[in-house]
Amino acid sequence: MNDRPRETKFAFSIAFAFVGVSTLIFLLMSRTDDVAATGFPRAAVYIAAGCAAWACLAFAVGLRSRHEGWLRSARRGIVAAWTLILFTTVCLLIALLSDWHHVEYVWRTSTPQQPVHYKLSALWGGMSGSMLFWNAILTSCAALMVWRSRGEEDRLTDYALGVMSVVMLFYAVLSAGLVPGISNPFQLLSDDIRMRVEADAAAGVSTRGLGMNPLLQTPLMMIHPPNLYGGFVICTAPFAYAVGSMLQGSGSTLWLARSRRWTIAAWLFLTLGNLLGGAWAYNELGWGGYWGWDPVENAALLPWLMITAFLHSVMIQERRNMLKIWNIALISLTFLLVLFGTMLVRCGLLTSVHAFGESSELLTYFGSFLALSTIAVVLLIARRWRRLRSVNRFDSLLSKEAAFLFNNWIFVISAAVVLAGTIFPIISEAYYTYVRGIPDRKIAVSEPYYNAFIVPLGLILLALTGVGPMISWKKATGSNLRRNFLLPTAAGLIAALACVAPFVIIGNSSPDEFPLLKTIYSLLCVFASVFVLGTIALEYWKGVRIRMRRGSPNLFSALFKLTNQNRRRYGGYIVHIGVALFYIGALGSNGFQLSDRVILAPGETHQIAGYQLKYAGEPFQKRGPNAVFHGVPIEVSKNGSGPIAQLEPSRGMYDASESATYESDTLRRLSGDLYISLGGVNEEGKADMQVYYNPLAWVVLWAVPIVMIIGGAVCLAERIKYRPTKGAEA
Amino acid sequence: MESKWIKFVLAGTLLTAAAVLLSVVAFNSPGANLVRFTPDQLLADQGGASAGVQVDGWVAEGTEQYDIDQQELRFQVRDAERTAFIDVVYREGLKPDSFKEGQGVVVSGHYNRASNTIQASKLMTKCPSKYEAADGGYAESEGAAEQTEAPQYSESSPESSP
């Protein structure tokens, strides 16, 4: 009866063969007529949208009628859509690499002079390319779901794939260019532009393409967007399982087991995307920081907050079969916030700061899908409400359940505050227009709002990071608390005292330098970070001691075995180490950043954070592959010793751009970064600079991402066992 | 059983109330909320302009003065129709990336009505208009059909934390 495995394998072989052969045909044809050849990939996106539509329909019919034939066809539809999108993506890469400037997207995002790796990353350097890339990830997820569920008749995954196919249809329609505002990636250059380009060519003016924005021509921009997009898109999979589970109506926790890896993958990519985005801003924008509470950053942070809350609260459902509705709400909100963030960013709702494209059709399209998805989720939850209600109850405020619940509250409240701040211009504009009758007036909120809120909440969350994993289920006893928390608390207190001690002994702290609130927050941050690290160290030490007794030859093998045996738990601990490190790094580089506006004539010096900066020599000009850099040489020495480094902050004039961009230069040391941005140089050679000292910046920019990757990878390698919990199966 | 449930509801309510209170405090902390105007609206506005404002406009052509010795950037911000002009003085940081005449900017700071001057505490440039200007005007007729979506503004803010 069950011919699914063979069937699926056959479909995937056909898919790979198709991509191979059609790419070959595309290449051969482009030799003779590269304009006509682009017709293939252009059409492929339309057909992909058609396949997704077919999959929607076939799933709907198949799941209702329980007719296996329809389901098989629907699954093939998903594989076909994936194949076609993959083919188009390969073609777009070929087009970018071969500089086909008759394709509008290529003309806009790449020039022949652009280095090869930036030609490749131009795939996500513009609107329609990144939408195609988005589709490529989404369809790959769906195809992977088909592949993984090939073994048995997996009804839940069929339902989830049904949801996936609806989302696929939504995005494939966008990529095909059916909605004004986002064009087909293979749209040809419009006649208007082409004629002007040709006229220029005839007049001897160079006719290169527009080229990618200089700010995007950096190695970080090659890895940051794929991570972020990956995170955004993969969130769809656990959402699809949640909705699929509700549609199926079994009320079991199987969907948690099935979506577990997807959730962790989405979380890991979102985390890295956000961290790398911060690193990009730090390296490129020249203002010495990595996070500015900008709407685009917030749009990426919101789903992260939700999915992190979800990651934690599912454990309560798995263990105690509680919070079922809450979990579905959290993962649905994650998906809806991704959609909402994409809408904010792509439809120009927040044009005030970003001059993104504004297209009312696109807004209507996104808005209706968002509204429909929200209504569908709410109706579904309402319909399954009784079946999803918890059997168990919370027992005590001193329990793991309570700690996780508070963790969830804080994540959700933070998300609400960030969301409110992000859309406040829109809310206030509506208020002024419709209630007060004053058009075009809006109120924007900025960093102080976010900082005043997020810092105290973040500190509570950090403390919970230490408490949650170690406190016992149901009701913690005094001995449980003492055993797990006494030593870490002592360690935290000692660390905090150690930070205060020098100031008490020397007694030179001025109130200006250390305002009361900042001092309290900083000490709490030190205390809580060390407390968290302490609880984890204690837990590891206990585990290792047992392993050593059982005959592990040394510490490392014991550590490895311990982690390997319970990957989920210890992967989580490693991620928590990353969290504590993040707080320490952020405290240093945000809380104790030094910043001086400096003006130096050649030969003059400036002191900052124990470094001496000397403007040594003359302003210089350097020619790069596609830019000229105007800079000044700055010699850095530690006070009292010889020069240790030469920094060359400059302004980059890119050939394809009229205005200059910062090319700041940084001296990276273990204690902190010395970061110099050059504002300008006048005729006498005087340089206007902003100099920053960012203590422990490397912790946030390097150490945390690496620890997160390790922790996330360990969690991903978890052996997922599905055990129906008590009372789960009705 | 029930009393425990009430304890949780109470704790949650308290936490939410604290969060709401905190967000109100946060909203009212110095520099946290700014009324946003276009230059013509600010000139026409009758009240409230002594508070922090955020002005959304363009750098007026022929008005940029960058004095390196004084570390001071002066320019006028104008509206789309070029009818309203407001002086801006910016000393808090470097001239932001891609700042130039005709460029869209968002200026945050304090407005002095008597001298028609904004003392800017923060200056942001909008997405570089390279798609419109820097390319011989090929793309002008295209409007906003294609824009890159990464944050393309640059920010020049002296401190990001209190």
Beta-strand percentage of chain A? 5-15%
Q: What overall geometry of chain B do the principal axes of the alpha carbons give?
A: elongated
Assembly state here? heterodimer
Radius of gyration of chain B: 21 Å
Helical/strand content category of chain A:
alpha+beta
- Name the poorly predicted regions of chain B: 128-162
Which key features would you list for this structure?
heterodimer, A: 730 residues, alpha+beta, four-stranded antiparallel sheet, 22 helices, 13 strands, 65% helix, 10% strand, globular, B: 162 residues, five-stranded mixed β-barrel, 8 strands, 20% helix, disordered C terminus
List the helices and strands and how they pair.
The complex is a heterodimer of chains A (730) and B (162).
Chain A: H1 4-32, H2 34-37, H3 39-65, H4 68-97, H5 104-109, H6 116-121, H7 127-148, H8 155-176, H9 191-202, H10 219-234, H11 236-248, H12 254-284, H13 295-320, H14 324-346, H15 360-388, H16 400-436, E1 442-445, H17 447-470, H18 478-506, H19 516-549, H20 555-565, H21 567-591, E2 594-600, E3 605-608, E4 611-615, E5 620-623, E6 627-631, E7 634-638, E8 643-647, E9 650-654, E10 660-663, E11 665-668, E12 672-681, E13 687-695, H22 697-716
Antiparallel strand pairs in A: 2-13, 3-4, 4-7, 5-6, 6-9, 7-8, 9-10, 11-12, 12-13
Chain B: H1 2-28, E1 33-37, H2 39-44, E2 52-59, E3 65-67, E4 72-78, E5 85-90, E6 104-112, E7 117-125, E8 154-156
Parallel strand pairs in B: 1-2, 5-7
Antiparallel strand pairs in B: 2-4, 2-6, 3-4, 4-5, 6-7, 7-8
